Amino acid sequence: MTQPTASPTLDTLFKRNLARQPDALALVDPPNKQRITGQPPKRLTFAQADRMISSLAAHFIESGLPSNSVIAVQLPNTIEFALTVLAAFRAGLVVAVLPLLWRQSELTMALNRAAARAIVTSGKVDGVIYSDLAMNAAAEAFSIRHVCGFGGDLPEGMASLDNAIFRESPTTRAVIQDGRKAALISFDVTSDGFRPVPRAHLGLIAGGLAISLESDVPQGATILSAFSPMSFAGLASSLAIWLLSGGTLVLHHPFDDEVLEQQVNEQACDTLIAPAQLALRLDELDFAARMPSLRNVIGLWRTPEQVGSSACWTAQQATLTDVYLFGEAGLFGARRIAEDGSPALIKPGPHGAPRDLPGSSIAGEILLTPRGTLGLRGPMVPVAAYAPPPPPSDSLIASPPRDYVDTDYAARLDRVTGAVNITAPPSGVMAVGGYRFLAQDLQEWARRLGQGALLTALPDRLSGHRLAGRALDNARARDALTELGLNPLMVEAFRDRSNAA
């Protein structure tokens, strides 16, 4: 009896690239990494990255993490993130990604919900001490057994991965490389509350293929990723696309426009992955003259309801692909091919990658639900994670399972063109700084700020919304937000806004 051929994992894709071109440049750090994390920037070939991945995987195995256990990762967009994720996969672990702007209460909730056995973080990111945040959250999470970090001045009890990454070890573990195995847990906020969303390697690869095929990323591309990797879309648009193309991944910690321009020109990047609002702003500033090597721009929309009313793309040297993101449920892309640079029309039904090529592979399906909302189905969409609770019924016959995810985005069909118009985001959920929060949480924060205080979410071109506030006593307001477990970065943002007001 023959064994069925196993589908690939992200580590399988990495090893294929390693075998083809071990000395080719694989990963490049941001040049301002010293300011961001206090560590010097690195440049790694596939062979160098492979040795570091094996060393980290050996460290995880020797630490006693069993196969298929969950390791939480909260890191900036630097080489350490890519190495840690691939090392976890090589050790047979499942990665849970934790956004940088999360509060300690959300970190603790995520660690408990995912039953994480370990957490990996950085000592400092942009001056904020993330090692203390991770240690405090780990102390409240019963399942955590190991806390690891990159960088100096780590607190007592946190293992240094800077030492482990350069220590060669023969320790390995037999891991079945099967794309159907669990790979990622990301976290979504819906009107029903906090929701962990698991995915297999195949789901991650399907997301990367949908974007890369639609945008026509060439083999051997030099890709600059300026999108936070701490989500399904972040991993699919950076790690997965890089491994599928077999080129070089240049990392940019969002956001410094001078550094981004420097990276694109020094590395001769041909592909840019960034928030869509940032890509359109670069177009307004005539990036074609300043960054002549760019040929593909992939713009990710955390607010897909704004795509239809966005500005036209004017650059002639590079194409723009709009990628619609629906939280952690899924995504789809559409390259702008109209002469005036307007967004492509999105029709309901199955869509290929690329969508304008007849007979192309089906990347997913778009549909309108009976509620007048947009639904998604396809290989990257984790239907089970979003399955609604079964309705109470006395019938002995179970209702048929739903085979799609309702994104809760209001949508309608245009009577003239037949295209889908996304009209509004999910009710009760607010995107702030690129992350989702329940509207009732914002109301609770405002209540704790004291009488006469104001806290609201204002539209922002780059991140959807930003918190803005005013308080009679700014010190009291910051203390109240800190008591609620608000991330220090968000507290500082409130202080700046309130003083300006």
TrEMBL record:
The keyword Ribonucleoprotein does not apply. GO terms for biological process: fatty acid metabolic process. Residues 14-298 form the AMP-dependent synthetase/ligase domain. It comes from the Bacteria. Coiled coil: none annotated. One of its GO terms (molecular function) is medium-chain fatty acid-CoA ligase activity. SUPFAM superfamilies: Acetyl-CoA synthetase-like (SSF56801). Keywords: Ligase. InterPro entries: AMP-dep_synth/lig_dom, ANL_N_sf. The keyword Ligase applies. PANTHER family: ACYL-COA SYNTHETASE, MEDIUM-CHAIN ACYL-COA LIGASE ACSF2, MITOCHONDRIAL. Belongs to the ATP-dependent AMP-binding enzyme family. This is Acyl--CoA ligase.
